[in-house]
Amino acid sequence: MTALEVRNLHKRYGPHVAVDDVSFTVAEGEIFGIIGPNGAGKTTTVESIAGLRTPDSGSISVLGLDPVKDRAEVRERLGVQLQESSFPDAIKVAEALEFYSSFYRDPVDWRELLELLGLTERRNTRYKALSGGQKQRLSIALALVGNPKVAILDELTTGLDPQARRDTWSLIERVRDTGVTILLVTHFMDEAERLSDRIAVIDGGRVAAVDTPAGLIARASATRQVRFRVSQPLARSVLAELPDVTDVEITGDRWLVTGRGQLLSSVAGALARAQVVGHDLRVDQRNLDDAFVAITGRAPAERRAG
Ligand SMILES: Nc1ncnc2c1ncn2[C@@H]1O[C@H](COP(=O)(O)OP(=O)(O)OP(=O)(O)O)[C@@H](O)[C@H]1O
Q: For the ABC transporter domain, which residue ranges apply (predicted)?
């Protein structure tokens, strides 16, 4: 079943077009990633889905409901963690959760949520005394306290250290396993690749591509690279003339061979025939960063501040 459907979304701020024409659907139980350059329209898109912005044209359906017309019903079913959430410094973790729970008809037991998020020991800690990771986990808890069917997470792990990021990823997978559909906006390609079932690349207010992470990577580049050092001198032509090879770079005893198809077995076979051993042989896997560059023409922006 479809959890979210966005059709031809268009939104301007005065003369400035923030979202030009965005369409995608998200199936129930999916983790759907949204990536794209700064200012591409990602936040405006998810804020429109959350009913926080009114589209100029196009339609949005959240579990069959309209976020603007059916605002109260959508709020019951949709949890939102937006960029840079902030709370009064003096509020305690438990108070914030108790307060948020009171907004919902059928909230989850927030004590269980604290346990799931590893915040039980911080229940009486004031917001200002929490670490960056704990604040982030609290904002996730607040997005989930209403027992939503769909959760929007914008910049989930910005500002977290590598261990906290990995812990948060496992947490999101556990949340998905409870049946929640997740819309994830992120600047981190490793995060999008690790968590998303499918990803939309938004660029200039439009959807440039929608596919599985593997599909985007394969679509963006069929090239592969093999690196190694040689045990003894070898003529460049031995590898450069192989049908799968498109480029060979040699720096001292280090070789970098670029090509397509079964590049590794072609290179290994040619080295064996020439009776040369390739040391430290490594195949460079293409990843979502490469796909992002190929699709948008820009490098992904990394955000680690905070
Ligand atoms: N309230 C606003 N008023 C005017 N312009 C805005 C407003 N909010 C966003 N914009 C502009 O609309 C465009 C899209 O912004 P949006 O925040 O949706 O992009 P984004 O992809 O989420 O960007 P980022 O990755 O930097 O968070 C940007 O050019 C931004 O400057």
A: 4-229
Q: Which residues pair with 127 in a beta bridge?
A: none
Q: Are the C-beta atoms of 23 and 41 separated by less than 8 Å? A: no
Give the model confidence (pLDDT) of 192-251 as tens digits.
999 999 999 999 999 999 999 999 988 777 778 899 999 888 999 999 999 989 999 999
For residue 40, the ligand 1 atom closest to its alpha carbon is 21
Is residue 118 pLDDT above 90, yes or no?
no
Ligand 1: nearest atom to the Cα of 301: 25
Q: CA-CA distance, 273 to 94, in Å (whole number)?
A: 69
Q: What does CATH list as the number for 2-218?
A: 3.40.50.300
Look at ligand 1, atom 11, and give the residue with the nearest C-alpha. Answer: 18
Instruction: Determine the distance separating the centroid of ligand 1 and the alpha carbon of 83, expressed in angstroms.
Output: 12
Please, what CATH class does the domain formed by 223-285 belong to? alpha beta
Sequence spans of domains, the chain: 2-218, 223-285
User: pTM of the predicted model, to two decimals?
Assistant: 0.82
| The dihedral formed by the CA atoms of 200, 204, 136 and 63, expressed in degrees to the nearest 10 | -50
Q: Which pairing describes strands 245-251 and 254-259: parallel, antiparallel, or unpaired?
A: antiparallel
Strand partners, 22: 9
